[in-house]
Each structure stands twice: as structure tokens, then as C-alpha cells.
Specification:
This protein is of the alpha/beta class. It contains 17 helices and 8 strands.
Length: about 450
């Protein structure tokens, strides 16, 4: 066996990794990791995740397993020498595409050779096999680069490397903002050496076979909504999901939500394929219902809420009023570092870079702001206890203000549905009747 190449991770990278990992955990309300035990221990692996949310996808793969991972990224982001130097120091490798110019494609062999060294050193490699990101919950056609690298690595080691490709499903409850749920599912590994004989006989056919297998395994761990009727299927699955929850005896956690949405999408897709007229029928009634919701100034999420009891609503309101000073304190002192990432991200044309930009800018805006504010506070008091309390409460109250703001929006939704039910009863009953009709139509369609 060839001597393993030892990749050295700079000290600053290790510190940055720990810091970004901690902030990544705070960025999401909840991170659910499933199937990490499927990752083979002490053996080379290539992670193959779906790609929907720019840089956040890379973090989603890397941080749950707490390992340094070498990534492959589009070559065009390496054009500026300063950025290229930073990316190289972080062990991020460029991969060249036709759009980068035919002359540049030849450089891929050098990169492929380096990935072989990475894998022989037992360092995980992550390749996004779709090639680029798209903000839709579906798997697009895979590129062949990941398979060429996998087979080249095994072939250079007489197929004794024991390399596995790990499909990874990444699902976000929302792409654009902090405080969402992130679900990461590691799927069934594919052992590349199992296809050695086929590969020696017919390279292209074997790559195509593996490409189909990986695509199938990736779809099994993510939410894949076929392109045909994409918007309608997505809307139907979201609307019908609560009905499935009501018939399932499972906890309402993100992974169960993912599997339920997968089930609904599968049934709806099959039904629309067999009964194309149903797609039009359901689409038409959904359009009417959505238009009526817009006229009423509410959303389907509000219609889903149970009738809030007046006493409980009153208690929640009183508690919220009591906590308003803390809410105001946290918002006031954290407004600037929170607003800066939003302003920078708003200038980005690609909306699915939004969360990556917000996250990246926030990594620096918050600590720099906190250092400046705490330093200024130290000038106004020499009481160490006050300094300590202020320093600790600054980020904590900001965190509280953020999530309490989200809660206040939910409370406002409860007020709106309470008002709709009691002051506009006829409108509420009409909308509820429309919704029940649609739910029954969907149920009849997928069960037919």
C-alpha cells in the first residue's frame, strides 16, 4: 500500500472549527442527526449530500460527526488569490467545470490525484454530487465526478482501500432564517470495491449503475418532490401532514416530520400519475382556498390552530407583558449585530446564499460588537459584579429576545384565529369548510 499522506490542519483552523461549530448549533433551533452509526469507522468515506442551501449544507455534513472533512467546491470561487489561499489552507479543493473553460478541465486530474491522497489518509471527503445548489426539495441529476474519484482511488489501491460512499439527506424547516430546524440523515453506505469486477469490464456502465444506486439511496434519506407538479405536491404534502400526525402514534420531531412528508409525497405522486385529472381538480380548489385566505388576511397555518381558550390566552398575554422589559432589553442591545447580517444578505442576488451570508457575517459581527459594547460599559463602572452580569446577559438576553419574538408572532396568530372565530364566525366556518373539503379530496385521491 502507498504511504499515507498526512494532512496538517493549521491551529487557527482548529480554533475556527470549534467556534463555528458552536455557533452553528446556536443558529438552529433544533438539529436532529439520524444514522451516524452507519458511517464505517476507521475507513475512507466520501459523503454525498443533497445540495439546497449553499455553504450551510457543508456545515450540516461536517459538524454533526465532529470530524475535519475535505470539501470540493466550484473552481470559480478560487479566482481571487487571497480567497484561494484561505480556501486552500482550509483544505477545500477546487473542481473545474466546462463553464470554467475547456483549458481548465485538464487541471481536474491534479485535483483527483489529491483526493486519492486524502482518502488514503483516511480523511473524509465531501462531494456535492448535484454540482450546484437549488432551493427546491428534490434531487437533481448527479454528476459523474464523485464516481470517477471513488473508482480512481480504489483502482490506485488495487480495490483494497475499503472506500464507502455515504448518502446524506439534509432537510431544513426553512432555508433563509436562523431559528429553524435542521435534520441530517446518513444513509446506507455503498462499498465501492463491490463493483470492482464490473468496473474492470465496463467502466462507463458501472459508473452509471452506481450513479443510479446513489441517487436512489439519497432520495430515501431526503424529501424528494418530483419536478412535475412540484409546487402542487409540496403544498398538498404540507397541508395534509397534520392529518397523518393525527393517525400516527409518534413524537412530533423533525425526523418523523421528514418521513411523513416522504410518505405523503410518494402517495400523491403515484396518485397524480395514475389520475392526472386529480392534480387539476385539487390544484383548482387549492387556488380558490388560497385566494380566500389572502382576502381574509390569514394563512393556512392559522386555520390549523385549535380554538384557543380565553383564559389560557389571557395568561399567555399577561406573561408576555411581564417579559416585555427583558424582550426590549435584549432587542435593543442586540439589534445592531443582528441587523448587519440581514442588510448584507439582502444585497445578494441568489436567495439561497442568504442564510450562508447571514451566518458568515454574524460570526464576526456579534463578537466584535460584544467586545466594543462590553469595553464601553467597563468605562462607566468599576464594579466587577456589574461588569460580569452585563457581559453574561448581553448574549443571553439577545438569544431570549430572538426566540421570544418568534413566540409573540405565534401568540398574535392565536389572537387572530380567536378573533376570526368569534367576530367573523361565518367567514371562519366557510374557510374551515373549504379546508375540510380539500383534505377529504386529498385523502380520497391518495387512498384510491
Amino acid at each position: 500500500m502507498a504511504k499515507k499522506v498526512r494532512f496538517r490542519w493549521p491551529a487557527f483552523y482548529k480554533l475556527l472549527y470549534a467556534y463555528v461549530c458552536a455557533i452553528h448549533r446556536l443558529y438552529y433551533k433544533r438539529i436532529t442527526v439520524v444514522g451516524a452509526e452507519k458511517i464505517p469507522a476507521n475507513t475512507p468515506v466520501i459523503f454525498a449530500p443533497n445540495h439546497q442551501n449553499a455553504l450551510m449544507d457543508a456545515f450540516a455534513v461536517m459538524f454533526p460527526i465532529h470530524k475535519h472533512v475535505v470539501f470540493m467546491a466550484r473552481a470559480d470561487i478560487f479566482k481571487k488569490p487571497a480567497i484561494a489561499k484561505i480556501l486552500d489552507s482550509l483544505q477545500i479543493l477546487p473542481i473545474y467545470r466546462i463553464r470554467d473553460g475547456y483549458a481548465e478541465l485538464g487541471r481536474n486530474q491534479e485535483i483527483f490525484d489529491k483526493t486519492v491522497e486524502v482518502l488514503k489518509s483516511n480523511i473524509p471527503l465531501c462531494i456535492l454530487p448535484e454540482g450546484n445548489h437549488e432551493g427546491q426539495k428534490r434531487l437533481r441529476p448527479l454528476k459523474k465526478g464523485i464516481f470517477r474519484i471513488a473508482f480512481q482511488s480504489e483502482e490506485s489501491n488495487s480495490f483494497n482501500l475499503n472506500l464507502h460512499i455515504i448518502p446524506v439527506g439534509i432537510d431544513y424547516s426553512g432555508y433563509f432564517n436562523a431559528g429553524e430546524d435542521l435534520t441530517v440523515v446518513y444513509g446506507t453506505p455503498i462499498k465501492v470495491a463491490d463493483y470492482a469486477a464490473q468496473y474492470r469490464e465496463n467502466e462507463q456502465k458501472t459508473i452509471n449503475t452506481l450513479m443510479q444506486l446513489l441517487a436512489e439511496n439519497m432520495r430515501s434519506v431526503m424529501l424528494h418532490i418530483p419536478e412535475e407538479h412540484y409546487a402542487l405536491t409540496s403544498q398538498v404534502s404540507e397541508m395534509y401532514e397534520p392529518n397523518v400526525w393525527n393517525t400516527c402514534n409518534v413524537n412530533r420531531q423533525p425526523y418523523n416530520k421528514l418521513t411523513i412528508r416522504q410518505y405523503i409525497v410518494q402517495k400523491v405522486t403515484e396518485a397524480f400519475a395514475q389520475q392526472p385529472e386529480k392534480a387539476k381538480e385539487i390544484g383548482d380548489v387549492l387556488n380558490v382556498y388560497s385566494a380566500n385566505l389572502t382576502k381574509a388576511g390569514i394563512t393556512d397555518c392559522i386555520m390549523l390552530q385549535k380554538t384557543p381558550h380565553f383564559l389560557l390566552l389571557l395568561i399567555e398575554t399577561i406573561i408576555s407583558i411581564v417579559l416585555l422589559p427583558l424582550q426590549a432589553y435584549g432587542m435593543l442591545l442586540n439589534y445592531i449585530p443582528f441587523k448587519i447580517p440581514l442588510m448584507v444578505a439582502s444585497k445578494i442576488k441568489d436567495p439561497h446564499f442568504k442564510s450562508s451570508i447571514q451566518f458568515g457575517v454574524g460570526l464576526f459581527s456579534f463578537p466584535i460588537y460584544y467586545i466594543l459594547v462590553i469595553s464601553a460599559f467597563f468605562l462607566f463602572t468599576d464594579v466587577n459584579l456589574f461588569r460580569l452580569i452585563f457581559g453574561l446577559t448581553l448574549p443571553v438576553t439577545g438569544f431570549f429576545a430572538f426566540y421570544n419574538y418568534k413566540y409573540l408572532k405565534q401568540l398574535w396568530g392565536k389572537f387572530r384565529i380567536f378573533n376570526l372565530q368569534h367576530s367573523k364566525t361565518e367567514l371562519y366556518n366557510s374557510l374551515q369548510k373549504e379546508r375540510n373539503y380539500i383534505i377529504n379530496l386529498i385523502k380520497a385521491t391518495i387512498n384510491s
